[in-house]
Amino acid sequence: MSIENGLHSLDGLTITMREQIDYWLTKFPHDQKQSASLAALMVVQKENNGYLTNVLMDAVADYLDMPAIAVYEVATFYSMYEHKPVGQHKICVCTNISCMLNGSDKIVEHLERRLGVKMGGDVTPDGKFSIKEVECLGACVNAPMFQIGDDYHEKLTPERVDQILDNLE
């Protein structure tokens, strides 16, 4: 049990995080709290500016009454979880076969040149953008594509990328 101090607790979970995790816990049998681990990690990541820390993963494990290693296994298996800071707008570029054959390499080159960061972990100095390579996002018919937040952007060209980025800045 932790001692609450304002919106934060000593174990790293805020009241907001706990409330959102509690919502997900209602979706599973009471004795299966670990079933909410994916959702709990997404909640914590979102509330922590888009990435997870060891302290937060340990706190999720404690809150869900499960071994920390089990939470780490989930958090490192799925590519949707980040373990270091990301930009306010994380650009997830599909580079699988359909996107590659339709020019995703040119999209990546354009993004890297325009933003001044490399795909795979760098964040722009203003903290706004990062570029991540991802597996197929299921929009092959409209390749090449990327995802920013919850939005898919398809049939990309360098000009279209510039329009999208200009609308985000």
TrEMBL record:
It catalyses: a quinone + NADH + 5 H(+)(in) = a quinol + NAD(+) + 4 H(+)(out). It comes from the Bacteria. One of its GO terms (molecular function) is inorganic cation transmembrane transporter activity. Coiled coil: none annotated. Its cofactor is [2Fe-2S] cluster. Keywords: 2Fe-2S, Iron, Iron-sulfur, Metal-binding, NAD, Oxidoreductase, Translocase. InterPro entries: NuoE-like, NuoE_dom, NuoE_N, Thioredoxin-like_sf. [2Fe-2S] cluster binds at C94, C99, C136, C140. PROSITE patterns: COMPLEX1_24K. The keyword Translocase applies. Binds 1 [2Fe-2S] cluster. GO terms for cellular component: catalytic complex; membrane protein complex; organelle envelope; organelle membrane. The keyword Cytoplasm does not apply. SUPFAM superfamilies: Thioredoxin-like. Gene3D superfamilies: Glutaredoxin, NADH-quinone oxidoreductase subunit E. One of its GO terms (biological process) is inorganic cation transmembrane transport. Belongs to the complex I 24 kDa subunit family. This is NADH-quinone oxidoreductase subunit E. The lineage of its organism: Bacteria, Pseudomonadati, Pseudomonadota, Gammaproteobacteria, Thiotrichales.
